[in-house]
Amino acid sequence: MIAFRGRLGFRQYIPSKPTKYGIKVWMRADPVNGYCNEFQVYVGKEKRRGRERGLAARVVTEMTERLRGRRHVVNMDNFFTTVDLFESLQQKGTLARGTVRRNRRGLPHAELAEPRLKVQGEFNVLQRGQLSAYAWQDKHLVNLLSSADDPTAQTTVDRKQRDGTKRVVPCPVALREYNNFMRGVDRADQLRTEYPTFRASRRWWVYVFWFLFDVAVANAFI
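RE: above sequence
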């Protein structure tokens, strides 16, 4: 989010973000060093599309077009993750991994929930082709979709208990990989704020310009 509170037709309000009012920017960033590979400024729905239902899928598809056929793994949060999107990316030679909302169409949530998971570290896995759906019991139930991981591979993670001790619990490798490689955009934002060149203005495009300049400076220092 680029902070901006002036008048603007495509200004967004997202209460869950630290910057609640501003211009939304989609970004694809390297998970290791935070290098910004690609971005899009969201200016609202496109008129030629009418009512845009597949916004998340469109954004991911357009921003991964350069990765076609390279077998890269794209990590994303549950706003973007759908079964149809992952299958579409797989057909184009791009793998994907991400947390998923339980009510997504095509997700076998009822089958994943049985048998019921009660103990921390328990998990269920269902597979269709190369696509795997996971339900893992942590402090809360975590659902994940992946076309990039072996569904039979397991690892362990440390979890702090109420008495202060640590307990080793089983975990699918896909969950560990997601946690390791889902920080690219956060890292890019962190780097951008370390090289601020902000200038106040009443014109919205000035804020976008300085945002892009900050991104370019941060990339130059990586």
